[in-house]
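Contributing new records

If you add data, match the layout below exactly. Sequence lines come first and carry their own label; structure lines follow with theirs. Keep one chain per record. Anything else will be rejected by the validation script.
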Amino acid sequence: MSDLSFLPTAHVEHWYHFRSHAVKMKNHSMINEFILLGLTNSWELEIFYFVIFFLAYLSILAGNCLIILILTFDYHLHSTPMYFLLANLSFIDILFSTVTVPKMIVDFLRERKTISFWDCMAQIFLVHLLGGSEMALLIVMAIDRYVAICKPLHYMTIMNHQILVGSVLLSWTVGFVHTMSQMAFMVSLPFCGPNVIDDVFCDLPLVLKLACTDTSVQELLLVVFSMLISLISFILLLVSYIVILVTVWLRSPSGLSKALSTLSAHITVVTLFYGSVILIYAGPVSYSLDKFLSVFSSIITPLLNPIIYSLRNREMKAAIIRLRSRQICSKPNC
């Protein structure tokens, strides 16, 4: 130990206080990885989940990539603003599932499931970025449907190219602001143990509980901010759907059943998406339910979106037929 007797007593006390603080900070930064408990400890179930989730992920990629491919190369659909928004929704779904599902699939084959500290932080950042962007984009899509049905004569004027691009950029901006507000809770927190996350991937509520300090204030702010953006988005979507249904009923009562059958599927997906988000961040829930909701938001929603929003659409079905015919006729003996 260095001889500090030549320093004044106050300086010596400051020195020992500084050294103690440095030792604590060093100890706080000891964690360099987290352990994920996953869904089950049964090897047979993990093999089963590996197969199911692998097939689901392939379906997510196939369905959403097909939509992007069709909307890119079928010029008949370029004149309808809605399909530009659908392509962006598929792009977000691909990224959202890719952030979590591949790691989840690989972990089913590992006995010890770990993720590095910074990979965990990156996963949290991207999940909230893409989740917030999708929330905003779903609102834009609802507004698009409202304008198309309630103001059909002005649809192309209102939903012009500049508005569409600006709306998509705005949705990404909302996602970025949302994820930065969430990550602000994590920046100054020390993590010195434990490092076990009882889930299939890193998510903010569970990681926040592992900090080596009192996080009650951060947890409260997390719930408030997450509930605020989720509830506002959900309410706006429901209001837009109700206005659309009322408008259709006033103009043509016979067309209400068709509009209701179409929007009911949309409302179902939106309710499932927002319901899972609200339950995760609303407060304490059982770990088994938390895992189910995490899997649901990562796999089921990206899997349902192409089916509900695109592949059930008559124009999309016609576009698939045109794309298939174009491939057949591109052969030399066509």
